TrEMBL record:
Keywords linked to the UniProt accession: Decarboxylase, Hydrolase, Lyase, Purine metabolism
Catalyzed reactions per annotation: 5-hydroxy-2-oxo-4-ureido-2,5-dihydro-1H-imidazole-5-carboxylate + H(+) = (S)-allantoin + CO2; 5-hydroxyisourate + H2O = 5-hydroxy-2-oxo-4-ureido-2,5-dihydro-1H-imidazole-5-carboxylate + H(+)
Similarity comment: family membership: Belongs to the OHCU decarboxylase family.
Domain Transthyretin/hydroxyisourate hydrolase: 180-297
SUPFAM superfamilies named among the record's database cross-references: Transthyretin (synonym: prealbumin), UraD-Like
Oxo-4-hydroxy-4-carboxy-5-ureidoimidazoline decarboxylase domain sequence ranges: 13-169
Lineage, opening ranks: Eukaryota, Haptista, Haptophyta, Pavlovophyceae, Pavlovales
Protein name, UniProt field: Parahox neighbor
Amino acid sequence: MTYKYPSAAELGALAASDFVAAVGPVYEKSPWIAERAHAKAAPFDSLTAIDDALWSVVSTASEDEQLALLREHPDLAGKAALAGDLTAESTDEQQRAGLSALSPTEMAEFTALNGAYTTKFGFPFILAVRNASKRIILGSFRRRVGNARGVEMAECLAQVRKIAWMRLRLLAPPAPTGKLTCHVLDTAHGCPAAGLPITLRYLGGTASASAEPVLIGHFMTNSDGRLDGPALSGSAFEEGVYEWVFAVGEYFAVRGTTASGTPFLDQVPLRFGIDNAEKHYHVPLLCSPWAYSTYRGS
Ligand SMILES: NC(=O)N[C@H]1NC(=O)NC1=O
């Protein structure tokens, strides 16, 4: 597999002006951060090393500089966004979160919250929204506007670092190493659920995704209650929202556990988010004809 992107080490070895041109935008309209990090600690051999060096500049900057950094951020669904006046990075993030398609009621709430928040704290509300949904964003906004200023200053700086990390990863995407697996256990009989049909669909890139689901495949658990291999791995495994549908009713009907022709648990849908496709996500299901539970396994 070939990448059109530089490796993290190539990015970290760039001369000062090229480094600032490439990495500068990860902190919104604040290239001084990349400049100082390069002067202090280049070259860097990994994205983590770049992230640490950038953050060390931000965390040791004066309070005035930190405030200036926060104030470079555009409001979420604010005037700049409406006027199409955002940086390329912010445009992408706000669009992916569905903020460019708000209903009039949602828009009115964002406008009111943006006003109340900025009046109270003197800087804009900041949240890393790339993989968030508008409901999650609004929930966080309503809660955080009630916080004390010191708490919000620290939270906004932490969010700014998250935004920078997500932007950094887009500059030099890591080789895909993650995978998705599952395991079904029959808690009515105390054994693996063998021969249980499962469907997997991809619902889109963000938690607000409402695009047509994409069928990834139909699977059947083996004698150990697992799939024979990962349902997704490598470059096919993308961040976003997925849904398993477990045919629990059919499984118990075939085993004769369900007396009635209308099982209580029929299909069990399980919608889950992947926010780091470099990781292994193991999604087990424990089920009986009457109950189920799940967790993020390993
Ligand atoms: N205000 C604010 O949080 N802005 C941003 N957050 C984000 O992820 N992209 C932005 O533009």
